[in-house]
Every structure is written in C-alpha cells, then in structure tokens.
TrEMBL record:
This is Peroxiredoxin. Gene3D superfamilies: 2.20.25.10, 3.30.300.20. SUPFAM superfamilies: OsmC-like. It comes from Pandoraea oxalativorans. It holds the Pfam family OsmC. It comes from the Bacteria.
Length: 140
C-alpha cells in the first residue's frame, strides 16, 4: 500500500493525498494552527478510516451469515491525550444496524470479530486507546 501526501503551499496548512488506488483526499488544519478549515484534519481521517474499516467488516460478516441487513452506521466518539503526541486514548463505537429479524448475538459477534480479528485500524488504535462499543438494532 502506498500514498503520496503533498502540501498545497504557503497559504496555509492544506494537503492533498493521492492513494495507491488512485483516489484523492484533501486535509487541512485548524485556523489556530495555520490552516484554513477547508477539509478534515488528518486525525479525523484516522478516525473516519477506522469507522469505515470496522463497518465494512460488520456488514461483510453479517452478509456472509445471510442476515437480512439493510443498513449499518457507526458513530465514533474519541478522546485524545492533552500533550504531544496527542494519540487517541479512548474511542467509543456506536453501531446502528438495520435489518429484518436480525439476531442480536450475531450482530454483537460481528462487531466483536471486527474489533478482535479483522479491523486492522481499530486493532492498531487499541495499542494506545481504550476501545468500547455499543450496538443498536433497528427493525426495518
């Protein structure tokens, strides 16, 4: 895996990244850090990527078990250390999974498998952060 991150120049703290798969992602800093608030912060992108990684796993696991899943979202709430390096210290994942006749233990199992075995991002973040989760199942 490879990517290239390029500074957009002296007018601020904006960066553009090109991923190995050919996609473009913008990032920017907060105004108090010299940024122009034009795009997500790099650490927000870490959190977003982790949410995408674990949601992908949960959907894939449930689909493989033939669950009638219609929707899945995960809200991540994170805390960071107050001093540098400002690593994540706590992250709570709240999964909302919508489907017909979903088995609560199967949904919980999918979330646990993601966090313990499949989601590389959350497994890496667990080295510095306490990870917790909750699950909400919506019939639909």
């Amino acid at each position: 895996m490879e990517c290239k991150v390029s500074w957009m120049g002296p007018g601020g703290m904006s960066f553009v990244a090109q991923t190995g798969s050919g996609h473009i992602v913008a990032m920017d800093g907060a105004p108090e850090g010299g940024g122009n608030n034009l795009a997500p912060r790099p650490m927000e992108m870490v959190l977003v990527g982790t949410g995408g990684c674990t949601a992908y796993d949960v959907v894939m696991i449930l689909k493989k078990s033939r669950a009638d899943i219609k929707d899945c979202s995960v809200t991540l709430k994170a805390e960071r250390a107050s001093e540098d390096p400002k690593v994540f210290t706590k992250i709570h994942f709240h999964f909302t999974v919508t489907g017909r006749n979903l088995n609560p233990s199967a949904v919980e199992r999918a979330v646990t498998l993601s966090h313990d075995k499949y989601c590389s991002a959350s497994i890496m973040l667990a080295k510095t952060a306490e990870l917790t989760h909750s699950v909400e199942i919506v019939e639909g």
